[in-house]
Write a structure and sequence with these properties.
about 230 residues, alpha/beta, Rossmann fold, 5-stranded parallel sheet, two-stranded antiparallel sheet
Length: about 230
């Protein structure tokens, strides 16, 4: 199956991992990156990098993210277009967390049309109650960036990173109040994107994403991709 997927990816296809916060988009994107040998592009990671650098874009984006709101479309569109134009995306790429609005989807479609890339949306469907438990339990090492989950993947010593012994922290956008706001924002602004993509004829794979392990969900995604 891996050979079939790699052969299909040779046609320069952009995979869009779609779903609400906490649906496992990042995990599946990384697994697909390792399988297909194409870049994993996370708009959240790119924005957090700018926030860490403290540049103008980062200061602006940080104020939006800490309140659970979406960063303005124009900013994110520019980041994605510039990233897809880099040489390592010539064979395709995996988008994680983008597009989140209908306007972003239109922008991405225009970029793909200009570049000649095809697309496939992988929609991870999850239960929101499970999402809240999953995200609120996340902890991250401020030094090495390693992620933990208090339920599914706890550190060996409570509150301490296994790798470097640093005290784990809760990211501002992982706090329960912010998670609930993010889910409400998703329903209000992002859920309609899937309806738009469907109506516009995008290729879409529907995958149940909250009743199995990451490796089992990956197999479901591969099965769906082979059929497209």
């Amino acid at each position: 199956m891996e050979n079939k997927l790699q052969a299909r990816s040779g046609a320069s296809r952009v995979l869009v991992i779609f779903g609400p916060p906490g649906s496992g988009k990042g995990t599946q994107a990384k697994l697909l990156r390792d399988l297909l040998k194409i870049p994993h592009i996370s708009t959240g990671d790119m924005l957090r990098a700018h926030i860490s650098q403290g540049d103008g874009l980062g200061v602006d984006a940080g104020s939006w993210m800490r309140s659970g709101r979406l960063v303005p479309d124009a900013t994110v569109d520019r980041l994605v277009e510039e990233r897809l134009a880099l040489p390592d995306c010539a064979a395709g790429a995996i988008l994680d967390g983008y597009p989140r609005t209908v306007d972003q989807a239109r922008s991405l479609w225009a970029v793909l049309q200009r570049s000649g890339m095809s697309q496939l949306v992988i929609h991870l469907k999850v239960d929101y109650n499970k999402v809240i438990v999953r995200i609120a339990g996340r902890r991250q090492c401020p030094q090495c960036g390693l992620l933990y989950n208090l339920v599914a993947n706890p550190p060996k010593e409570a509150g301490i990173c296994d790798r470097d012994g640093q005290a784990l922290a809760i990211r501002d956008d992982d706090r329960e109040s912010v998670v609930r706001e993010r889910l409400e924002t998703y329903e209000r602004q992002t859920r309609p994107v899937l309806e738009f993509l469907t109506a516009s004829g995008w290729n879409i794979c529907e995958v149940e994403g909250d009743d199995a392990s990451p490796s089992e969900i990956l197999v479901r995604i591969q099965d769906c991709m082979v059929s497209q």
